[in-house]
Amino acid sequence: MKPKAKRQTDPAIAQARREQILTAAAECFRRKGYHGAGMAEISKTAGMSAGHIYNYFESKEAIIESIIEKDMEEMFSIFQQFEDHPGDVLAALLDGLNIGVQRHMDTGACVVDLDMMAEAGRNAKVASLLRDMDIQARTRMRQLLTSERSTLKNIEEQELESRINVIFSMMAGLLLRKVLYPELTEETVLIALRPAMKTLLMPFDEA
What's the DSSP call for residue 203? Predict the structure, then answer.
């Protein structure tokens, strides 16, 4: 008698289940942090058994890895919008600045990012994933700022790296400011951030 063939899962259903688990895990991490949220709570929030979850993710660390990968996809989508913008790079980045501000001031979504940063101090794998994400983000920004549409296309490497790091530092710091100062608004931030960003995206003798 032939063994019963294993039923193949529809790829669309499998992806939907993965998204369901990732959404539930992110919610649990927001409430209790990475260490406080166990697989039992994640499975309860997702509405499925822990055994079912292990069909898609072998560990809680694998879930974090997928959350980071999802963040990377969203980040690359934003960079693609900048690259597809019909104007020059300065106009593209300034026009899309509010998108970045909204994303970095969303304390509901970004609190998981804070927890992952804390976990990176204890977990070498998570630290490696976050650093790889940062490398890829800086690479995309470097490509954008040295493209033919950019006024910084002939900038020296050291100065370019300095500007990119300052830009990323400003954006990443918005979440901390929002946590410490909940009254902070997007509109208030953009009053000072737009001219500061414009200075960083132009040759200093033209800023």
Answer: -
pLDDT for 161 equals: 96
**pLDDT confidence of residue 94:** 93
Q: How many domains does the chain have?
A: 2
Below-50 pLDDT ranges, the chain = 1-8
Counting Cα atoms < 13 Å in the Cβ hemisphere of 196 gives 14
Give me the pLDDT at residue 13, please: 86
Residue 3 lies in a domain: no
Residue 193: both structure tokens together: 């951030």
Does residue 206 sit within a domain?
no
What pLDDT does residue 9 have? 63
Parent domain of 102: 61-200
CB 113 within 8 A of CB 30: no
Residue type, 206: E
What's this model's pTM, rounded to 2 decimal places? 0.81
> Are 146 and 160 spatial neighbours (Cβ–Cβ below 8 Å)?
yes
Q: Is 1 a domain residue?
A: no
Report H helices in the chain: 11-36, 39-46, 50-53, 60-84, 89-95, 97-104, 107-120, 124-145, 157-180, 186-200
176 in Cβ contact with 95 (< 8 Å): no
Give the amino acid at 82: F
Q: Are 110 and 174 in contact (CB under 8 A)?
A: no
